[in-house]
Specification:
The protein is mainly alpha-helical and about 190 residues long. The chain folds into 2 domains: about 30 residues; about 150 residues, Orthogonal Bundle (Lysozyme). It is built from 9 helices and no strands. Helix 3 runs parallel beside helix 6, helix 4 crosses helix 9 and helix 6 crosses helix 7. The longest helix has 27 residues. Pfam families: SLT. This is Soluble lytic murein transglycosylase. It is an enzyme of class 4 (lyase). Its EC number is 4.2.2.-.
Length: about 190
């Protein structure tokens, strides 16, 4: 190989290294932006508004929405839960009556604002019942407040936040872990 060929090859290697270093620095400096790109926060204003109204952390609301519907306002579960926060029509009717919504139709659950309002109110209501324990709120949101009350009957939980492994319902246990992961992510990304 000639000296000229080696110089070209070395020059190309050097250019690739510089480009790689540049891309790594760009990624490090814009890590939050890159992660936000893959974890957007649709309905940010609505989530923030109802979070303030009902005193619920917007990052928790976003985490529930991510876990429940992946921000799909038209989502319907096999059990019939609807919208962003996957609210059952009966729960929606009850929550609507509690929030002063006089004319409620289960189709309203596909409206992002209505769904976020009712779902956030419900999270707030569960927070009052379960002394603000995020784990118990999420377990009740997923598994039903009655099931969580039954599970807690006769138990002394020193730290409900550390008791995820004690949740007797595998689906709910997995759900709580998933929402808490999203909660940490959204808390970090959208301070």
């Amino acid at each position: 190989m000639s000296a000229v060929s080696r110089k070209r090859i070395n020059k190309k290697k050097m250019q690739r290294r510089i480009l790689l270093i540049f891309l790594l620095l760009l990624a490090i400096l814009n890590f939050d932006s890159i992660v936000r790109f893959f974890n957007p926060l649709p309905y940010h204003d609505t989530i923030t508004f109802y979070g303030k109204v009902y005193n619920v952390d917007p990052a928790l609301i976003a985490a529930v929405i991510k876990a429940e519907s992946n921000f799909n306002s038209k989502a319907v579960s096999v059990r019939g839960a609807r919208g962003l926060m996957q609210i059952m029509p009966e729960t929606g009717l009850w929550a609507a009556s509690q929030t002063g919504e006089s004319a409620f139709d289960s189709e309203f659950l596909f409206d992002p604002e209505t769904n976020i309002k009712l779902g956030t109110w419900y999270l707030s209501d569960l927070g009052k019942e379960f002394d603000g324990s995020t784990v118990l709120i999420l377990a009740a949101y997923n598994g039903g407040r009655g099931n969580v009350k039954d599970w807690l009957a006769g138990k002394t939980l020193i730290n409900p936040e550390a008791s995820i492994s004690q949740i007797p319902f595998p689906e709910t246990r997995h759900y709580v872990k998933k929402v808490l992961l999203y909660y940490r992510l959204y808390s970090y990304l959208y301070k």
